[in-house]
């Protein structure tokens, strides 16, 4: 089975600052044609997941150059090289401290 490892488990950030979440796969998620089977998703509370970005090979990093309040949500990465898609536990939670002391959550899940 492919093992997905996500870091950090917790990261305090403030609006306007950069944020970075990493996801590592125990196997390459790139096929012989160069297709990458890793995706990052953002799921906001009460909303369906939204596609955010993708990576390559075995190491993936989701970078937000300047965090904004609307970036709040659960980010997760998933792989689909093997079925069923791997789900990481525990989910990465990033606490975004907004000016209104709003707690914002970023989560990562594996998908393709």
UniProtKB/TrEMBL annotation:
Q: Which organism is it from?
A: Rhinopithecus roxellana (Golden snub-nosed monkey)
All copies of domain Ig-like, residue ranges: 1-78
UniProt-listed InterPro entries: Ig-like_dom, Ig-like_dom_sf, Ig-like_fold, Ig_sub, Ig_V-set, IgV_Light_Chain, Immunoglobulin_dom
Which SUPFAM superfamilies does the entry mention?
Immunoglobulin
Pfam families assigned to the protein according to its UniProt record, in alphabetical order: ig
Entry keywords, A to Z: Disulfide bond, Immunoglobulin domain
Q: Which PANTHER family match?
A: IMMUNOGLOBULIN LIGHT CHAIN
Q: Which Gene3D superfamilies match?
A: Immunoglobulins
Protein name (Swiss-Prot/TrEMBL)? Ig-like domain-containing protein
Q: What are the GO cellular component annotations?
A: extracellular region
Q: Which SMART domains does this UniProt record tie to the protein?
A: IG (SM00409), IGv (SM00406)
């Amino acid at each position: 089975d492919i093992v997905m490892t996500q870091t950090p488990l917790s990261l305090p950030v403030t609006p306007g600052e950069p944020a970075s979440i990493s996801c590592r796969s125990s196997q390459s998620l790139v096929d012989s044609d160069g297709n990458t089977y890793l995706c990052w998703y953002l799921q906001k509370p009460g909303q369906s997941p939204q596609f955010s970005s993708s990576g390559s090979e075995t190491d993936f990093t989701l970078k937000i150059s300047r965090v904004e309040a609307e970036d709040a949500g659960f980010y997760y990465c998933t792989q689909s090289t093997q079925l069923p898609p791997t789900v990481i536990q525990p989910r990465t939670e990033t606490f975004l401290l907004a000016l209104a002391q709003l707690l914002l959550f970023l989560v990562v899940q594996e998908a393709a």
